[in-house]
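ok so heres the complex, three chains, lmk if somethin looks off
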Amino acid sequence: MDVTPPLYARIYLLCGQIPSGMVTSYGDVAAMVGGGCDARTVGEALRAIGEHAPDVPWQRIVSQDGVISTRGLEQRRLLESEGVAFDRRARVLMLYHRWGGPGAEFAAAHRFGPPPPHDDAPEQLELF
DNA sequence: CAGATGACTCCCA
DNA sequence: CTGGGAGCCATCT
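and the predicted structre for the whole thing:
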């Protein structure tokens, strides 16, 4: 039978560091995990969470724009219960809730890299 | 080893 | 804004 793949274990470890009320994107997780991991791999790891790590806060991983595309209703409900705000188009307000990565010590201990910078404009502030 | 799969992302019409 | 297509990569058959 399967055991948790090494890369997945790192993904779960990093996701477990995301505090309640914060979110990050698949691409950001992939960048921090490094080692040839990409957004799709993160998605695959989260898909297999039920088999490997049921305690990982999978709901805190959203797409790059803050959109929940897959298991929307359940995920949105969980995030809202943590205090995460959405705009009119069901996007997480990333400018407020984007996670800045694990602490420096934790990152160094597990060889995680820094999250990639975002060049997003504050257009998401335009609610309504 | 080769083909298929997917909870992504980017680019272009 | 919407939709289609390509690129990407670990994991499973």
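quick notes: The mean pLDDT of chain A is 90. thats all i got rn
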